[in-house]
Amino acid sequence: MTLEDMLSLMMARIDSVAMSEESMKTKFDVLGRVLYKKGIITDDDIVDAVREQGKLMKAIGATQNDLSDEEVKAIAENILLWLKGDADTIKKSMEEYEQKLRELASQENKKPRLDVASPAILSELDKITKGGKPGNKLIL
After folding, report:
1. Residue 64: how many CB atoms within 10 A of its CB?
2. Whole-number Å distance between alpha carbons of 74 and 69
């Protein structure tokens, strides 16, 4: 099996997992929407469930801190957007998220980079810049 075959196999597996995850998310959204519209699940139920999930995550050591009230509210609102099927608000929040990602990427590109050269390359540069004189090290 060649490296290309292995990479193709891994990419196919990743695609399969991504499709499976999307399918599960869609099923959850559909079932949640049905329960919400029938009044079986309320806004308060979602908030309480998010708070309980946060406590569970802390209890099993997956997180260090309890969720703040603001975090609980934000998570619950996001879930409720999907359950209510509020397409306009979902689109707007997705656009805002993409804009934040672009801004972060832009900021990351502006940061100075620290490149590390191998000792062999540093030795060669040292010889070139110092005329082969020992004892002086080049740091770029």
Report:
1. 7
2. 9
Q: What is the C-alpha separation between 11 and 60, in angstroms, rounded?
A: 32
Sequence-distant (≥ 6) Cβ neighbours of residue 136 within 8 angstroms:
126, 130
pTM of the model: 0.59
Tokens at 23, concatenated: 């399918």
Burial readout 84-102 (b: 16 or more C-beta within 10 A, e: otherwise):
eeeeeeeeeeeeeeeeeee
Separation between Cα atoms, residue 88 and residue 93, nearest integer Å: 9
Quote the CA–CA distance of 106 and 111 in Å, as a whole number: 9
Consecutive 10-residue runs of the chain (140 residues): their mean pLDDT?
90 92 92 95 96 94 92 94 91 91 86 77 77 56
Rg, the chain, Cα only: 26
